[in-house]
Amino acid sequence: MTGTPCAIVGIGETEVARRSDLTSVELGLKAAIAAIRDAGLRNSDIDGVITQQTRANPQANASPLLSQRLGIQPAYVNDISLSGGAPSAMVANAVAAISAGLCSVVLCASGGGDQPLSREGRGRGRLSTGWEDFMNPFGAAAAPVSYALGARRHMHAYGTTSEQFGAVAVACRKHAQLNANAVMRKPMTLEDHQSSRLLADPYRLLDCCVPATGAGAVIVTTAERARDLKQRSVEVAGIGQSSIFATLEHAQALETSAARGAAERAFAMAGLTPAEIDMAQLYDPFTSVVLVTLEDYGFCAKGEGGAFVEGGRIELGGQLPVNTHGGLLSQGHLGGIAHVTEAVRQLRHQADERQVAKARTAVVSSQCAQLGMHVSLILTNERVH
Amino acid sequence: MSDFRFAPIENPDTEALWAGLRDGRLLIQKCSACNAHRHPPSPICHRCNEGEHEWVEASGRGTVWSHSVVHEPLDGWPSEVPYTVVIVTLEEGVKIVSNLVEGSHEAVRIGAPVELAVTQGAAGVALPRFRLADAG
């Protein structure tokens, strides 16, 4: 770990549901307070607040607003608007702020999920003059469409099949069945996946994540302070980020992604290799993204992700359990924060029925911009030197 | 494919593109300093950061780089399905997200040659779309 060694000492997660009567503000507050209490801290111990911009209720100055509502006056605040990239980016920014001496105990809060909430519409006004103008008029801006274009490139380059995408969906569903806080818990077979209707080919319905409401939060502080706190400390061993493009027109390739550069940096910082990782919590808006990320992280060779995800290799009990909480695909799309909270829960050995035995290390991925921006975290329950 | 609820906003960075399309021409920016083409429009060149540029008419020929046939209205757009979204690599070397027009959903393949087919729509909005070209 470069800079001040840091750890995640608190996690909070609200109920995850298809619909909620709660606003994104209330959900975010519930998760934040849960994380602070989980750490055994008081609100007044928090001197840094970082928020993830929610799609359901985007607003400026979100971190000062959250601080005000919590009744605290932090020394450091920051709003992160990197959509699915934000959860790991919040942790990265918390570590950076702590390393710079700006603050010492940081609340990273994500609220609202990816579904319009019943008491507030999704903030979809007139189009901006940004990238949407070159996607929306062609019906290409909906995420299943823009990501499908990447999935098609992977199939073309490596012969990857829809059945292999389906193996990712099946693994996530099996894991969600062991998670009481998951939206989709009905058993799913590969046949179910194959017979689900095409939405944007090659994606079928069951290649796509489940929109949901809910929120999550984590508390980051120094590894030194973490050792005196309530929970088993989960240290941040490595952080890596990479931004290689923002819109599809500038993508050189879609069979690979920014995950590659992010993971290289994270593994180098951690001094670890993929072979030393016990589980992966990978941002999974669509099945193919998991497969590309596994390759880019070096868990298998480029082009072999399709074969890698088959045969139960990414399921609990397999070589590399992936998305042990069910992921966006079956727990529900909270914006990706639950990948972080699940990794911490696993590394505390608090994951009950879905616990990865003897887990010591985990990678977490967050990403946005159609594979163009990626943030990797490597977490461990061992001491980082 | 005539639903323009999601019509683009024209601004000084992009109005030449949309105006050209109303005349049936696809204009792309060419950097006056390094000759790199660029799309979508940007005030500066991503390669050399110079702002001076000219708008040149693309040949309209290109190849399919990726494609997806959309079978259901997603995010409320558009009303008519199926429709085909493509990323086309233009002869000039830039990529553009677009649609295939007409009934070519089944025939679309990566590498297939395409040619420009500008769609004139309601409210003065014209869009650069493509049709499959003869392979020869």
UniProtKB/TrEMBL annotation, chain A:
Family matches, as InterPro entries: Thiolase, Thiolase-like, Thiolase_C_2
Name this polypeptide is given: Thiolase family protein
Organism: Brevundimonas guildfordensis
Superkingdom of the organism of origin: Bacteria
Residue span, Thiolase C-terminal domain: 247-380
Pfam families: Thiolase_C_1
Entries under PANTHER family matching the protein: ACETYL-COA C-ACETYLTRANSFERASE (PTHR42870), NON-SPECIFIC LIPID-TRANSFER PROTEIN-LIKE 2 (PTHR42870:SF1)
Automatic annotation (TrEMBL), chain B:
Pfam family, one: OB_ChsH2_C
InterPro entries: ChsH2_C (IPR002878), ChsH2_Znr (IPR022002), NA-bd_OB-fold (IPR012340), Thioester_dehydratase-like (IPR052513)
Residue ranges occupied by any ChsH2 C-terminal OB-fold domain in the UniProt entry: 55-118
Domain named ChsH2 rubredoxin-like zinc ribbon: residues: 18-53
Protein name: Zn-ribbon domain-containing OB-fold protein
